[in-house]
Specification:
CATH superfamily of the largest domain: Glycogen Phosphorylase B
CATH architecture of the largest domain: 3-Layer(aba) Sandwich
Radius of gyration: 21 Å
Number of helices: 14
Helix content: 25-40%
Order of helices and strands: EHHEEHEHEHEHHEHEHEHEHEHEEHH
Largest sheet: 7 strands, mixed
CATH topology of the largest domain: Rossmann fold
CATH class of the largest domain: Alpha Beta
Strand content: 15-25%
Number of strands: 13
Number of domains: 2
Distance between the termini: 40 Å
Shape: globular
């Protein structure tokens, strides 16, 4: 499988890998460098190759040579020029997601043994399922993430409280500022959790640890724990699974929590959830989400997806100033009390 994009893209492609496993295949991956860690320890990933858009072309050719005709089939999700050429190097039988009505994609449709239409506005999991079906594979609709008993032990050993204490898992970071919620709102969520008798764990990357510690300054360390940079992807999934609720933004961590079966509150801004919303395992349709809801809340399975209630949502732009470092008012103006009310409702419903 060739998925040369972001962490979330790799995770959302795992249902197709599970379909291949069910059909008796071992699955190797080619992914963008830096995303391979999310596949560590996963049964749906036998071997993982890495590449990158900035790699010199000779390195890309070298990888293609190493892959040359090693595989029974190769899947490109989606079929960028690079992923398609690497898939073609790996196997003469290429299966791909390709746009049906783009003339510049015609060469890809001609060389693909099997292809499914890469339709705008469709969720990647739904598209992966369509490609599995077109390939006569058993269709798996669940995003895959696994962790071990030792992962569970390591997670709880790192927390400054016993397993019997209920906690929420907050991931207040995203790749780009236009996906961020405001710091004061996160502090309101932390205070509401503590007032409800819940502990709080905050996750993030090592680079985000200082910001996370600043966010929780003044709260008792016995009740608010910063785990930024502490856990691998398997352990983060385990952490989310055991939390009373997970609250996060439009980021790979939210997809991970959803796959782990966590009680998820996903805060979305300008991104279209039909395409990139977290996938509730067990969902059998094409996409679990509409573009927006008049009430600002959509619920499916273990997930509540919350959006701003402005008429422009979702604009699919990178912030109100159309830059990755700009603010999205639909997120900035989202009320913490409104979000916490949904958290409380979810916890009551989830544990009934």
């Amino acid at each position: 499988m060739v998925v040369c994009r972001y962490l979330g893209d790799v995770l959302l492609a795992t249902p197709l890998a599970a379909s291949l496993q069910k059909a008796g295949y071992e699955v190797d991956w080619v992914v963008a460098g830096g995303t391979e860690s999310i596949l560590e320890g996963q049964s749906c990933a036998a071997n993982v190759w890495t590449t990158g858009a900035k790699n010199p072309w000779l390195e890309q050719v070298s990888l293609g040579i190493r892959l040359m005709r090693k595989y029974d089939m190769a899947f490109a999700l989606p079929s960028t020029d690079r992923s398609m050429l690497l898939a073609l190097a790996a196997s003469s039988r290429v299966h791909a997601l390709i746009s049906a009505d783009r003339s510049q994609e015609a060469w890809k449709r001609r060389i693909a043994s099997v292809w499914a239409d890469y339709t705008p506005g469709s969720h990647m999991v739904g598209l992966a399922c369509e490609l599995a079906d077109a390939s006569n594979l058993p269709v798996c609709r669940d995003v895959q993430i696994q962790w071990s008993a030792s992962d569970t032990d390591e997670v709880f050993a790192a927390l400054p409280w016993s397993r019997g204490n209920a906690f929420i898992h907050i991931h207040p970071f995203a790749r780009w500022p236009y996906k961020w919620w405001r710091k004061a709102a996160w502090k309101q969520i932390i205070e509401a959790a503590l007032n409800s008798g819940l502990r709080v764990v905050i996750s993030g990357s090592p680079a985000e640890a200082e910001t996370a510690r600043d966010m929780v300054s003044g709260y008792p360390e016995t009740h608010v724990h910063v785990a930024a940079g502490r856990f691998n992807w398997r352990q983060l999934a385990c952490l989310s699974h055991h939390a009373a609720s997970y609250i996060g933004l439009d980021t790979a961590n939210t997809h991970l929590a959803a796959a782990a079966g966590a009680n998820v509150i996903a805060l979305f801004g300008p991104t279209d959830p039909r395409i990139w919303g977290p996938w509730p395992n067990g969902f059998t349709g094409t996409s679990p989400w509409q573009t927006s809801s008049p009430q600002g809340i959509q619920r499916q399975g273990n997930i509540s997806l919350m959006q701003g209630r402005q008429d422009c949502v979702p604009c699919q732009m990178e912030g109100c100033d159309r830059r990755q470092d700009s603010v999205s008012l639909c997120l900035k103006e989202m009320e913490a009390d409104w979000v916490w009310a949904e958290v409380e409702e979810r916890i009551r419903h989830f544990h009934d």
